[in-house]
Amino acid sequence: MSNKPKPISQPESDKYWNGLKNNEIWIQKCKTTNNYQFYPRAHCINCTKNDIEWVKVNGEATLFSFAIVFLAPIPEFAEDVPYINALIKLKEGPIIPTNLVNINPDPEKIKIGMKLKPVFEKIDETLTLLKFEPSKQTAN
Amino acid sequence: MPNFNKLKNISGNTSIVGVAESDQIGKVPEKSPLALHAEAASNALNDAGLKFSDVDGLFTAGWSTLDVAEYLGIQPRFTDSTSVGGSSFVIHIAHAIAAISAGYCEVALITHGQSGRSDRAPLSRHEGIPMIQYEYPYGIIGPPSSYSLACSRYMHLYGEDKTREAMANIAVSTRKWANLNPKAYFYNKEMTLDDYHDSRWVSWPFHLLDCCLVTDAGAAIVITTKDRAKDLRKKSVNILGIGEGHDHSMISQMPDLTKAFGTKTGPQAIKMSGINLEDIDLAMVYDSFTFTVLVSLENIGFCNPGEGPEFLLEKTISPGGNFPLNTNGGGLSYTHPGMYGIFTIVEAVRQLRNEAQDRQIDNCNIALAHGTGGLLSSTATVILGT
Q1: Which residues contact B309 (CB under 8 A, 6 or more apart)?
Q2: CATH number for the A59-140 domain, one of 1.20.120, 1.10.101, 2.40.128, 2.40.50?
């Protein structure tokens, strides 16, 4: 059993975390402004209305920024270093915090702007995390 | 939006009359955080020539003022526990001058105490907050993780080599100031550029020597009306302009990774004070990381976005230079208990009073202090003058 921090889903984010358990990515879209948002909220942060629908997206994304962790912030991540923290930009617009996997943790190899696809990492029956890896076109 | 007509009416009407650290800073396992609050508060009031019974406004962060007031044994008539990270104590100055100007209180005490190194009881938060829900499971935890994500994007946009050179310069120059400050954690330890480049990676692109210290320390500030300040012990330092605010909490929600809220608070403080950036004799810029200084200088308006490295090549920020920066040795080399912002004010006041001993700069009449808190989340900029 991993002792890493697990998300405590809140009522407005159950749909997101439950979707990941089925290898699906669900994000919110405002029906008034057509704005996509991450993370899930009870209202649209653009127009403040709660006229929101959930849409399933395929996870196509680009790398927005990354950092390579060598000193684990808490002991539970010590076995993982070096690992790659990433902010990825979905093609729909929202930025999601995640890890970049299946690529060497080498700043020369990792290019901001590179194309990414989702990797569903099942932690246990209650949790699947959404990570990303280079899509085939840019894999090295 | 800020009403500058009203802000200009209170510009210069309040003064900082007392500043102090706790008796010891650095490694202080024998004192609790609340003891550090109390010790610093007592020292700052003594610096001002005031007593605990004179205090009617209390401000603190990381703790509730309920607990701090009870521990100190005071009963404030204005109370503010605004806690938005290390910038909080600079933000408290804005709240203190508002409270004093409106008549809620006359003597404001801002206290800080934190045992980042030795605390027996770490602070905790609601685990359902978005930061813990969406970033922590991936190991995006704590300031080095988050600030390095911002720095990496900055390097991508503006160039890695020149950014690295600027960060190395900030680390080494700040250490040189610390070597002049007997209270600095690294007073007796010099740093070369090689030391910087050879230090291990914490979270690429941050070397260990890009990162602030983790210490135990307390500090306090006393503020009152300009009129009352005239009768007190030390030369008063007037609060000329200030701005505060924030635009996100966790790093993945930062609207622009290379522009923190200093883009708003810097210009606001300058405009309220009626001075120009060229008039500033001392810049005390919160240095949680070398990168924080670089991006803050741009945000405040000293140079354009992406031109911080060129600005630092034009200026000399080390002792004897033409742009004195973080003369106490900063969070990088003096002290950083976790929320460092108050120490930028302590040093600015000492320089303005000509009390900075070996590190005293010449003709210090106007100082800027800039706090950054959370994960580049909150900022506050204040202009102080004699």
Answers
A1: B158, B159, B162, B163, B165, B166, B294
A2: 2.40.50
Verify whether the Cβ–Cβ distance A67 to B142 is below 8 Å: no
| Tokens of residue B378, six digits | 């909150």
Catalytic residue among B71, B158, B286, B340: B286
What is the rounded CA–CA span in Å between residue B348 and residue B352? Answer: 6
Predicted TM-score (pTM) of this structure:
0.97
Which chain A residues touch B138 with a CB distance below 8 Å? 85, 97-99, 129, 131
Q: A97 in contact with B at a CB cutoff of 8 Å?
A: yes
Please check whether residue B291 is in contact with residue B373, taking contact to mean a CB–CB distance below 8 angstroms: no
Length of chain B: 386
Question: Closest Cα partner for A105 from B139, B334, B217?
Answer: B139
Q: Judge whether B321 and B315 are in contact, CB under 8 Å.
A: yes
What does each of the 386 residues of chain B score in pLDDT, given as a tens digit? 999 999 999 999 999 999 999 999 999 999 999 999 999 999 999 999 999 999 999 999 999 999 999 999 999 999 999 999 999 999 999 999 999 999 999 999 999 999 999 999 877 788 889 999 999 999 999 999 999 999 999 999 999 999 999 999 999 999 999 999 999 999 999 999 999 999 999 999 999 999 999 999 999 999 999 999 999 999 999 999 999 999 999 999 999 999 999 999 999 999 999 999 999 999 999 999 999 999 999 999 999 999 999 999 999 999 999 999 999 999 999 999 999 999 999 999 999 999 999 999 999 999 999 999 999 999 999 999 99
- Domain ranges in chain B are 4-120+213-385
Token pair of B329, please? 């040795």
Residue whose C-alpha is closest to residue B196's, from B289, B96, B260: B289
A44: Cβ–Cβ under 8 A, 6 or more apart, which residues? A28, A30, A32, A33, A35, A37, A50, A51, A52
Residue with the two structure tokens 């004192």: B31
| Sole residue written with tokens 């290379």 | B258
Contacts of B285 (CB under 8 A, 6+ apart): B292, B293, B296, B297, B300, B325, B326, B344, B368, B369, B370
| ipTM of the complex, rounded to two decimals | 0.96
How far lies A44's CA from each of A53, A54, B256, B377, in Å? 10, 12, 20, 21
- For A131, the 3-state DSSP assignment is strand
CATH 2.40.50 domain range(s) in chain A? 59-140
Q: Is A67 helix (H, G, I), strand (E, B) or coil?
A: strand
Q: Which fold has domain B4-120+213-385?
A: Peroxisomal Thiolase; Chain A, domain 1 (3.40.47)
What secondary structure, in 3-state letters, does B15-47 show?
EEEEEEECCCCECCCCCCHHHHHHHHHHHHHHH
CB within 8 Å: B150 and A65: yes
Residue A77: closest C-alpha in chain B: B139
